[in-house]
Amino acid sequence: MIQKQIKKIVQYVLLIIFFIISVFPFYWMFVGSTNHTSKMFTNPPTLTVGSQLMENLTNLNNSVGIWRVLFNSLFVSLTYVVLALAVCTLAAYALSKFEFKGRNAIFITFLLSMMIPYQATLIPLFQLFSELGLLNTYFALIAPQLCYPFAIFLMRQNFLAFPTALIEAARIDGAGELKIFFSIVLPSMKPALAATAIFLFMMQWNNFMWPLVVLSSQDMYTFPVALSSLIGFSIIDYGQVMVGISIATVPIIIFFLVLQKHFIAGMLGSAVK
Amino acid sequence: MKKLILGISLVVLFVAGCSNDSTDGGKDSSKKENVDVTIWATNINVPVLEKAAELYKEDHPEFNLNVEEMNNDDIRSKMTAGLQSAGQGLPDGALLVDDGITGYVTNFSDTFANITELGFDEHEDQFPQYKMDSVSYEGDMYAIPFDAGPVGVFYRADLFEEAGVNAEDIKTWNDYFEAGEKIKEVTGANMLSFDSNDSTVYTILMSQQGKGYFEQDGTSNMDSEVSIETASVFSEMAERDIIFRAPGWNAWVASLVDSQTATAITGAWLIGTLEQQVPDQSGNWAVMPLPSFEGSDSRSANQGGSSFSIFESSDNKEELYDFLVFFATSTEVQELAMEGGLFPSYLPVYESDLFAEPVEYFNNEPVWEFFAEEMTKIPSVFYTEHDSLGRDEAVKVQAEVLEGTDPEQSVSDANGRIENRIN
């Protein structure tokens, strides 16, 4: 009995320690956003919430126009997730459930393209968009990565686990290919879709190098680019930076929580028992 | 038939549109109705540029300036993409850090406007020689000088006093080490804290002796006498245990806040950093010149500073040049810059009362005047396209000699690596 209790106590102590380790950075971020930048460097560190939040926010808004940045980031990331999910899911479905010549070759080509370092494609891609006159547009942020090999790979593995017999049965019953895809295959794919969506959203939300290179006016900046522009050569106002990061973190948390629900719902309501 | 007519008329319209464009762009540039110019710059420069544009607009109502705020590394990344794509996507001009400009010009000389050819020679006596040299390539200037980083040793007057050290007695590096030992013994603070991820102090000590990382003909200075002297300063301080390694900018600022160090060796811009990040230590700081090396009386150096480049691809090259010359040689604008924490390199502005004013943070000493006097004493240093390699290796040398490696051995290893990477 006592042994059991001790075990429980140890468990909770460990959990609390790890909880503190994972939550502390967020708390530090919040503390930083409510204090003057000089408080970030004191010893012992400042751990209490200050009263400068509104001042930091006003400064931040003056330097980068944070609400416009928030809109840009949300618009680009959400549009990207919807479109990329459509492209990648359909591609993965074709690559896993249709028999055609060169199917594996195409898939392997996709996988190989994952191995090309991003830096190598940056300049050619930039030249391409420059020639097309598409620099500094939302399109330039969204389009290049719509077909994302890793997302195709992820979805394909999930489709492979889906029994082909079910699809054949639907075909015999006279369902069209689109009907089969949307009514029979996709509903059971919710967990996989949610996982892929979270992955794609995070990737686009945090994307830095490409937006930095391709954007040229401040009203198009996304979060990573805008926050980076706050870093000066000799002066960094951490108050502003921390407020900006706090605002940038909230949508990711919301997005994750919303999809997490689907994630679990999808697990329970699977069509395949 | 209808379609054909429509098609032809569209083509005609299109061609007309094109030819219209080309005549507009080609005609005399002195009477443009609207001049829209974009410049990339880092944060504290933005308000100065915008105010200068307002002043300039009074006489040039057609001039519109658009400043894109970016940090220095980001400007470099975007420059690289733009330069590699033959100037596509570049703005009309950019504020670039001096140590990178000649490197760009060496590789992409067609992309940068030759400032000397645009007529900058008439202003040559208004800027310190070292500043103009630092943005010159094969005798021509490729950027309009703006701010500078005259170096001083910022020291904690309160700690010096506590240890009974008189800053005026520190004349050579040896004096500096001995004072450091005394201070460490009495107060526990190290003599110097430096950012160990960066080559700032190494670069400063090299340039104090008039050397950059490379000669203009491309030979590396890493294993030169000057570099050995520099590395020895680090190893000497390590031996006496009076140097503090701060990994990164933030840790370095924290070491100043924390009184872990009695001095900091940087450009004048530290004034702004101290006032903003370390307001509690107001009144404790003071500035002295660099200690001298044996056999030399140079006690000055430069660190950082930036200048404006104009790109050949710009449609408004001359207009931007005129504006930037106004910007760089207007006492009013340069005073604004100074109030914003930038140290101007325009010599006539040092006559301004602003420089003689006591600075409250520095115990009411006129520190700006000190730096203004430094400006004409700074030795010229040439930057080359390979400088980033030199800075890279300097960081390794710093780390090695602090761990006890012989300075001579360490710099010669570094030199080997540099030559390997270049060839």
Automatic annotation (TrEMBL), chain A:
Transport recorded as keyword: yes
Domain ABC transmembrane type-1: 70-259
Bilayer topology term: Multi-pass membrane protein
Key words, A-Z: Cell membrane, Membrane, Transmembrane, Transmembrane helix, Transport
GO cellular component: plasma membrane
Primary localization: membrane
A Pfam entry, by short name: BPD_transp_1
InterPro entries: MetI-like, MetI-like_sf
Subcellular localization: Cell membrane
Record bears the keyword Translocase: no
Membrane-crossing residue ranges in chain numbering: 12-30, 69-93, 105-126, 138-159, 180-205, 225-258
GO BP terms: transmembrane transport
Recorded family membership: Belongs to the binding-protein-dependent transport system permease family.
Protein name: Lactose/L-arabinose transport system permease protein
TrEMBL record, chain B:
Record region (Disordered): 403-423
Highest taxon of source: Bacteria
Database matches in PROSITE patterns: PROKAR_LIPOPROTEIN
SUPFAM superfamilies: Periplasmic binding protein-like II (SSF53850)
PANTHER family attached to this UniProt entry: ARABINOSE-BINDING PROTEIN-RELATED, SUGAR BINDING SECRETED PROTEIN
Designated name of the protein: Lactose/L-arabinose transport system substrate-binding protein
Biological source species: Gracilibacillus halotolerans
